[in-house]
Inverse folding.
């Protein structure tokens, strides 16, 4: 019974931790954006405005939950749940400390890729079911963006798999005890960063919701907590991509002095903050530029990176 | 584990039936995704987690999104639902139903004869799948690659033809617009 209870406690801890973090990130993001854009941001509620996420939560839950009459009701209701559920399930394979993760899968990386490809249905189906031109355009953009960027998201990770000789995330972290994979796989890291940004549709790549062109894109018709689910799903997605980057390229929980969980948390937070900085710093490209750049530049680079890594690994004879 | 297998298999069969019988294309596609996911789970239960993950990534994740993309472009509404309904009257099902029943009968017969239906098998590691694909089945992989390449070149050719016609049209229209615009402008001044 003991291991079962341990696993249940771990699940509870990860779930509570993640959702609290997602809530706090609302405040962190708005304060940091304000700092970088030379304004104050939310600073009224609680010390430094930290209770803004409680106020936001109350607002979301008490707003009218409206389903447009022309929409496809079951799909409309189901869509926001998919993004949160897939992102949370993908978290089960992240190694938080030596030997500590909810699931220890031999196909860890593939499990993550599978769930992230399932998460797209949330935005695509949500955009379609709303029966609104802007939502549909948002959904179309999301699907085109995703099947372009998913191709090299997988390819960029294969260099790491060649170097560590395993798809298991625990083994990959252990293989980085000598050197973090960001050094030999710097190209792979950059490509995964782009793909991860496109996957979470954060600002430089947020064409599916581009508020200056499409109102709010795929979630234009969503209100109340259904919109809140998209919102939470986005933050959980950012946390997930950051955690995966840390695990695959930056040594996961490895680090001196401090306990492994703390190292893991600190490194993950660094990448979350980097994602927020990107949002404040980089303008949005045009949609066709995004796709052309992905297919014509990043995909060949990802393939070359894979070929070079494979050739070097073969020449070294491992 | 055996009950799990039969539950998942039942879901796979039922959802696939719904794919065929559903009149709303997008709903049918969602059933198709669930059917593919249950197929992946079947692979997992049979000891092939690598193939299961690939099934989700490639079929349920990528190809179905492409289908959905195409469907969304077509703007399918209630009129199409009605059309589908008129095509799938009960009488239509008789022929395919009979043929499928024969197939089901043959399957039952083969199983009762103790044919090759694999039960709980050994775990198949990712590297074994790779070795099989690039070893004994290399020719099949190359043939599939050739087929895909032919499809790719065909699509590129069609698109190229289309783009050339658009390109020859495009400069003509704006320039004519501009000339008329300037003419009226001059007319206004004059």
């Amino acid at each position: 019974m003991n291991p079962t209870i341990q696993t249940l406690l771990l699940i509870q801890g990860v779930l509570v931790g993640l959702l609290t973090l997602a809530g706090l990130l609302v405040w962190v993001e708005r304060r940091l954006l304000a700092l970088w854009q030379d304004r104050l941001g939310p600073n009224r509620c609680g010390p430094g405005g930290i209770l803004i996420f409680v106020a936001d939560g109350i607002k979301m839950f008490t707003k009218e939950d409206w389903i447009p009459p022309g929409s496809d009701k079951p799909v409309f209701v189901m869509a926001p749940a998919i993004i949160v559920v897939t992102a949370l399930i993908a978290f089960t394979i992240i190694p938080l400390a030596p030997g500590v993760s909810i699931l220890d899968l031999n196909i860890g990386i593939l499990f993550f890729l599978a769930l992230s490809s399932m998460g797209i249905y949330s935005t695509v189906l949500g955009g379609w079911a709303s029966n609104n031109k802007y939502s549909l355009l948002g959904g179309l953009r999301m699907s085109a963006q995703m099947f372009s960027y998913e191709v090299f998201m997988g390819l960029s990770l294969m260099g790491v798999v060649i170097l560590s000789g395993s798809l298991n995330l625990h083994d990959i972290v252990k293989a980085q005890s000598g050197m973090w994979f960001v050094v030999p796989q710097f190209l792979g890291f950059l490509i995964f960063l782009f793909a991860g940004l496109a996957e979470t549709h954060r600002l430089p790549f947020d064409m599916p919701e581009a508020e200056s062109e499409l109102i709010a894109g795929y979630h234009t018709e969503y209100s109340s907590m259904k919109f809140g689910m998209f919102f939470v799903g986005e933050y959980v997605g950012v946390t997930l991509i950051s955690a995966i980057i840390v695990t695959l390229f930056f040594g996961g929980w490895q680090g001196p002095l401090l306990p492994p969980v703390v190292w893991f948390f600190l490194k993950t937070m660094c990448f979350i903050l980097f994602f927020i900085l990107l949002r404040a710093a980089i303008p949005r490209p045009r949609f066709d530029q995004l796709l052309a750049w992905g297919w014509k530049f990043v995909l060949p680079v990802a393939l070359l990176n894979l070929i070079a890594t494979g050739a070097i690994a073969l020449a070294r004879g491992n | 584990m055996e009950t799990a297998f039969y539950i998942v298999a039942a879901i796979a069969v039922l959802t696939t039936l719904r794919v065929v019988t559903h009149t709303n294309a997008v709903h049918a596609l969602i059933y198709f995704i669930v059917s593919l996911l249950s197929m992946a789970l079947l692979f997992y239960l049979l000891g092939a987690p690598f193939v299961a993950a690939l099934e989700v990534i490639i079929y349920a994740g990528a190809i179905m999104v492409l289908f959905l993309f195409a469907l969304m472009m077509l703007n399918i509404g209630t009129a199409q639902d009605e059309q589908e309904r008129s095509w799938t009257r009960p009488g239509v099902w008789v022929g395919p139903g009979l043929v499928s029943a024969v197939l089901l009968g043959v399957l039952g017969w083969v199983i009762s004869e103790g044919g090759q239906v694999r039960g709980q098998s050994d775990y198949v590691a990712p590297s074994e799948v790779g070795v099989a694909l690039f070893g004994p089945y290399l020719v099949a992989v190359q043939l599939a690659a050739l087929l895909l390449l032919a499809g790719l070149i065909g699509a590129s050719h069609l698109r190229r033809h289309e783009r050339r016609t658009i390109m020859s049209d495009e400069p003509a229209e704006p320039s004519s617009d501009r000339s008329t615009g300037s003419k009226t402008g001059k007319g206004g001044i004059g």
In short: Residues 2-136 of chain B form a domain with the Four Helix Bundle (Hemerythrin (Met), subunit A) fold (CATH 1.20.120.1200).
